[in-house]
Design brief:
By secondary structure, the protein is an alpha/beta fold. The chain is built from 8 helices and 19 strands. Strand 7 and strand 8 form a beta hairpin. The longest helix is centred in the N-terminal third of the chain and has 21 residues, at about 75-95. It starts with 5 loop residues before the first strand and ends in a 19-residue tail after the last helix.
């Protein structure tokens, strides 16, 4: 498979390159179908040339996909089918020279957390379980770092569950994990039936291709969550998600781009695709009639850069592979340009948060003394 890469400038002004540059080799067509229902796109984020540092070009991939079988199929068949579906896409990423690849949230199962039925817990697996082993082989084959978001079964702590990203190194080793920090309780998103807030903090993983972090799904709504990954030195933050159009689509192109700008790192946003229908209708205590699906997962995966540029999004309806070359030197260049770290007032924020956590906290509101006086 081949791609034509597009150079991206701030505010998403992009144009094709038809030559070999120091940043990437431009090949083939800008968008092609690996299969009848798979879209692929490729882009480039450039940085200024420096005198003392060589370019740090990393090729990064995102995969969005729908489930492979109906939710009524045997669970073992569903898991096997989704792996068979995703493998050719990973192969395409590997053949294209992708260095770091991220899959969508809980990619190895339907996003059944709306149903609150416990039988879906059977999809949970340990950190080194079936899906990790499947991806470890591919990581070794393609010398690729792979972010594997799963429903984790914590076998060492009472077999409780977490929403977890397993970071697999390019040698097939497990570098570490991160567990989802923020659990939604909005509409059909009642995920605390299955797992609670994570306990891994805001880890950044130093890989062969740069420092990466994972802000899982609902964490994108929390600006301090994004900030913490940046303070720990992240250069690329992935946001593997499962979110539906009626709830979040107007926010989708905004939040990750703002995070990339505010924290001077790249962001890869991934969302699954399709409408997943479950066998038993459910409600969410919001007065709406019972229903059998979560709504439409609208895909639209994309990259955002610290200089405010971003790629177009993948399809709302089709499986997709998004690839981008990015020069990680851009992160420091933007820090130097804007000075967000230097001009931040962390001591003020820390003092405010410390006070806010106290039971006797009183907001700093200065009331106009004339406000309640009669004329």
């Amino acid at each position: 498979m081949s791609f034509q890469f597009f150079l991206l400038q701030p505010y998403s002004v992009c144009f094709p390159i038809s030559y070999e540059s120091s940043d990437c080799r431009i090949l083939g067509s800008t968008q092609e179908m690996i299969s009848d229902n798979l879209e692929s796109q490729a882009f480039c984020f450039h940085a200024d040339k420096e005198l003392l540092r060589q370019p740090r070009i990393v090729r990064v991939g995102l995969i969005q996909n729908s489930i492979a079988l109906p939710t009524t199929a045997h669970f073992a068949d569903q898991k096997k089918a989704i792996m068979q579906k995703v493998k050719p896409i990973i192969d395409a990423a590997g053949a294209s020279g992708v260095n770091v690849l991220c899959l969508q949230e809980a990619w190895m199962m339907p996003f059944a957390f709306c149903t609150r039925e416990k039988r879906w817990c059977e999809f949970a697996e340990p950190i080194d379980g079936e899906s990790t082993q499947f991806l470890q082989d591919l990581a070794r084959k393609y010398n690729m770092v792979i972010v594997n978001p799963i429903l984790e079964r914590d076998v060492n702590h009472g077999e409780i569950m977490w929403n977890t990203a397993v970071i697999i190194g390019n040698h097939g080793n497990i570098i570490g994990i991160h567990r989802k920090n923020h659990i939604p309780r909005v509409g059909d998103f009642n995920e605390s039936t299955y797992y609670m807030e994570g306990n891994t903090g805001h880890p950044v993983f130093e890989t062969a291709y740069g420092k990466i972090a994972v802000n899982i799904c609902y964490g994108r709504h929390h600006s301090l969550n994004w900030l913490a990954f940046g303070l720990n030195g992240a250069e690329i933050v992935f946001n593997p998600s499962a979110t539906v159009g009626e709830l979040s689509e107007p926010m989708w192109p905004i939040e990750s781009r703002n995070a990339a700008i505010a924290n001077s790192y790249f962001v890869g946003s991934i969302n699954r695709v399709g409408t997943e229908v479950f066998p038993n209708p459910f409600t969410s205590g919001d007065g709406k009639p019972q229903h059998s699906d979560f709504g439409h997962f609208y895909g639209s995966s994309h990259f955002s850069a610290p200089d405010a540029s971003c790629t177009p999004s993948l399809s709302r309806y089709r499986d997709g592979l998004m690839i981008s070359d990015m020069d990680l030197n851009l992160c420091r260049q933007i820090k130097d340009k804007w000075g967000f770290r230097m001009t931040a007032r962390y001591e003020l924020y820390a003092a405010m948060l410390s006070e806010y956590l106290k039971r006797d906290f009183s907001p700093q509101v200065i009331v106009d003394p004339m406000l309640h006086k009669r004329p």
